Amino acid sequence: MAEATFLELRTAAENHSEINFVAVSHSDQPSTERWLESIGGTGESGSNPVTVIVDADRKIYAQWGLGVTSWSHVLSPAGLLSIGKPGWERGIWNRPTESGSRWQLSGNWAVDAEGGVRWGGPVKRADELLDIEQAIYSIKA
Known about the structure:
Mean pLDDT: 84
Largest sheet: 2 strands, parallel
Structural class: alpha+beta
Helix content: 25-40%
Strand order of the largest sheet: 1-2
Distance between the termini: 27 Å
Strand content: 5-15%
Shape: globular
Oligomer: single chain
C-alpha cells in the first residue's frame, strides 16, 4: 500500500503546488532511494515534489503514535483479499522489503500551515488507502 499511497501523494503534489506533501519512510536511506527510483521518483522536475523523510529508527512514527501492528492488522482475511486490488487495477504489486518492517503501522494526516492536524490518523487495516481528496479538502476548507 505504500507505493499506491506515494503515487497518490505525488500526483496530488503536482496538482496542488500550494501544499507541501511529505512521506516518511521507515526504511534506511539507501533502500528508500532505490525504492523511490523504482517507482519514478518524488515528482517531475520543476514541479512540487513530495518531500521524503527517512526515519529508520521510527522515532517520528512513535511521535505520531504509530508502533508495531498486530497479526490481525496485517493478515486479516478481508485485508488479504483486497491486497491484490492495486495489482489488478494499477499494476502495483508488493515489492520485497529491503529494510524497515511490514509490521510498522502507518497513518495519514493533513496538517495546516499553523501546525494544526485537520484530518487523519492511523490506518485501520494494512490494505487501507489514503483518501487524498479528503485530506486536501480538510486543509483548504
